[in-house]
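A.,

Following up on our hallway conversation. Structure tokens first:
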């Protein structure tokens, strides 16, 4: 059976560019793959035919020979630039063709790099997390704090190279510095981490005795950290280059400080606002008066209580809340009145309250309105 024209197989014109040929083969490889055409017994043959065509047309010398002599260019030892001829029964050339497209589609995803050559495989150090708990007062004013961070630092004995005496590592002979090795499995090329260098691309013949060849050692460090005013729970502070040291001279990771503001005995925080629940006596709430309330900076503010204030009433103290994290104005503080019922009454106090109660039929409008509504409700139920 005569072979089909390679250009017809891929569906391109004879003057197609290398990029057009590659795109055409991509489409054909996806369209004709046996896994997607399990019900078509001819699919595998068509799939191999497309690979054979691409193997020739992707190579400038083979393509020139094919354009001049057709399929005869690869029969009887004629031209073609050497190598196994297409359709010779083996699958080395076809696998190579499919590998090119596989690299093009998935190489970046798998961290691969086409074109050969050694890559810098020194691994970046891991980022570290430090949980810091501070008081609300510290969140208000900001603070400078020294923290102890466990982690790894660059080995001073080998200057981070991992080799004894600071000698340079050598390129891994197994993967040629790529950090990955490839194995052919049928039509696919599978890429795995190099077992010799563990993906670093380099090996050390004489590892440093201090760090065992890692280029870093475990050590706790003391760091001075500036916590800005206005931070709140969940604030994240990044210290670049203060994380784990990299493997064999790789860049250092970062340190992330996660701030948690502890609950306060007097104040509750909502964003930049503060809330303070202040108990007042029944007499003060009824008659009115002045009270002193605390502020977060440790001072006092005088607040005037209007006569007849009810429990739960709120009053605003402008500019007495928390500062904004990035230099904005301070929020407000809200005072919530908690009218306190007296306890442990003396005999005289009880007598006075009874007298007051007897004279206070018109002094509790909310109570009168409530019980009036209750009476109406009960009457309607009877009806």
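Then the amino acids I'd put at each of the 383 positions:
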């Amino acid at each position: 059976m005569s072979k089909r024209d390679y250009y017809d197989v891929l569906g391109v014109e004879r003057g197609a560019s290398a990029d057009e040929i590659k795109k055409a083969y991509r489409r054909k490889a996806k369209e004709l793959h046996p896994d997607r055409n399990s019900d078509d017994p001819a699919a595998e043959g068509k799939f191999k035919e497309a690979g054979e065509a691409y193997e020739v047309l992707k190579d400038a010398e083979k393509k020139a020979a094919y354009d001049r002599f057709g399929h005869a260019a690869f029969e009887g030892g004629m031209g073609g630039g050497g190598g196994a001829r297409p359709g010779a029964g083996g699958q080395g050339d076809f696998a190579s063709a499919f590998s090119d497209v596989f690299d093009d589609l998935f190489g970046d995803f798998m961290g691969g790099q086409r074109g050969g050559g050694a890559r810098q495989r020194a691994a970046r150090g891991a980022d570290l997390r430090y949980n810091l708990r501070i008081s609300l007062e510290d969140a208000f004013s900001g603070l400078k704090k020294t923290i102890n961070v466990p982690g790894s630092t660059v080995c001073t004995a080998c200057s981070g190279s991992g080799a004894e005496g600071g000698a340079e590592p050598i390129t891994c002979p197994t993967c040629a510095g790529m950090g990955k090795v490839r194995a052919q499995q049928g039509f696919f090329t599978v890429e795995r981490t190099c077992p010799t260098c563990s993906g670093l691309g380099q090996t050390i013949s004489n590892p440093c005795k201090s760090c065992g060849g890692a280029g870093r050692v475990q050590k706790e460090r003391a760091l001075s950290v500036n916590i800005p005013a206005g931070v709140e729970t969940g604030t994240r502070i990044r210290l670049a280059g203060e994380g784990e040291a990299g493997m064999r001279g790789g860049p250092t990771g970062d340190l992330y400080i996660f701030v948690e503001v502890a609950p306060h005995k007097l104040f509750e925080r909502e964003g930049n606002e503060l809330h303070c629940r202040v108990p007042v006596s029944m007499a003060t709430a009824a008659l009115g008066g002045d009270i002193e309330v605390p502020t977060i900076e440790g001072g006092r503010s005088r607040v005037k209580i209007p006569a007849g204030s009810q429990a739960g009433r709120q009053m605003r103290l402008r500019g007495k809340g928390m500062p904004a994290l990035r230099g904005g104005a301070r929020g407000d503080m809200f005072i919530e009145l908690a009218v306190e019922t007296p306890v442990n009454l003396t005999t005289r106090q009880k007598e006075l309250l009874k007298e007051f109660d007897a004279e206070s039929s018109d002094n509790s409008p909310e109570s009168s309105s409530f019980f009036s509504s209750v009476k109406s409700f009960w009457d309607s139920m009877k009806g």
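The radius of gyration is 40 Å. Curious whether your intuition agrees with the design.

B.
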